[in-house]
Structures are given as structure tokens and as C-alpha cells.
Amino acid sequence: MANHVRQQLREAVATAVTGLSTTGSRVYQSRVYPLDTSSLPCLLVTSDGDKSEAITVHSPYQQERATTIRIEGLAKAVSNIDDTLDTISKEVETAIAGSSTAIVKGMIYQGAQIDYDGSGEQPIGKVTMIFTKDLYTLSNAPDVLI
Fold first, then answer.
1. What is the DSSP string of the chain?
2. Do 85 and 127 form a contact (C-beta atoms < 8 A)?
3. pLDDT for res 1
4. Which of these CATH numbers, 1.25.40.10, 3.40.50.720, 3.30.1330.130, 3.30.70.1700, describes 5-53+61-138?
5. Side-chain half-sphere of 5: how many Cα atoms within 13 Å?
6. pLDDT of residue 32
7. Hey, CA dihedral for 132, 137, 142, 143, is it positive or negative?
8. First to last CA, the chain
9. Rounded distance, CA 85 to CA 76, Å?
10. 42 and 26 in contact (C-beta within 8 Å)?
11. pLDDT along the chain (146 residues), means of 10
């Protein structure tokens, strides 16, 4: 049995954004523990869940899942932290848009939020990018894309 389609999407997105110039292989999924500053710059790829709608009436019914993926780019303060966050955004958006992987292809960029945290030893900048993708499954097979 395959993994849930949400997990499949999250893992495929993480693969698509691994190896970018700024963040390299520092791509983490569903990270809940604090990051050490030596891990920066990096990307955190998480799923914010999905909204499902039945699009057929027979059982098992076909459903459309509007799935949300959050990609956070984090970087330590450098002379131009805004530029670094914008470069991370450009690299991520380009990688997602250029992905040939079927489950990633066609993801929609919804926007970004930029935040700063000066409470640590060195200020940290964060850009949070939101992407969505409609995935189709049967109600009795949330691990199989149709």
C-alpha cells in the first residue's frame, strides 16, 4: 500500500526543492524541533492539510482534495537578508513550476509572508510560501491518485 497522497505530494515537493543553490540539501519535512543556526539557510516542507469535496455520488465516490503545502525558507542575518529570502523564493518557485513530476506539476503558488526574529544570537529571516494542488482519489483509496 502506498502512502497517503498528501504525504506523496509533500515528499515529491521536498525532492523538487532539494539541491537549490542557496539551501542545498538542507530540506526538512515536518520539522517540529528547533533548528540549529548551522543548518541555515534551509527549507522546511510541510503539509497544512486539505479540503475534500465529493465529485461523484456513487460509492466509493471520487473526491477532489485541495491540498496545501507550506515551504518555509530560513536564513541567518546577512548584510542583505531581504535579498537572500527573495533568492530562496525565486529558486523554490522556479523549481516547483519546472518540476516534471506528475504529482508536483501544476501546483499553484498562493503567495508568501516574510518574517524576522531577532530574539536569538543572530537574527533569522523567514519566507513562508504557500502552494496548493488539487489531487483526485476515491473515498476508499486515499493513497491512490486518479
1. -PPPHHHHHHHHHHHHTTTBTTTBT-EEES--SPPPGGG-SEEEEEEEEEEEEE---SSSPEEEEEEEEEEEEEEE--TTHHHHHHHHHHHHHHHHHT---TTTTT-EEEEEEEEEE-SSSS-EEEEEEEEEEEEEEETTBTT---
2. yes
3. 62
4. 3.30.70.1700
5. 26
6. 78
7. negative
8. 15
9. 10
10. yes
11. 92 98 94 82 95 94 97 87 95 97 96 89 91 97 95
**Predicted structure pTM score:** 0.93
Q: CB count, 10 Å around CB of 139? A: 13
pLDDT of residue 121: 74
Contacting residues for 52 by C-beta, under 8 A, at least 6 apart: 63, 64, 65, 66
CA-CA distance, 32 to 113, in Å (whole number)?
20
Residue ranges per structural domain of the chain: 5-53+61-138
Q: For residue 141, what is its C-alpha cell?
A: 483509496
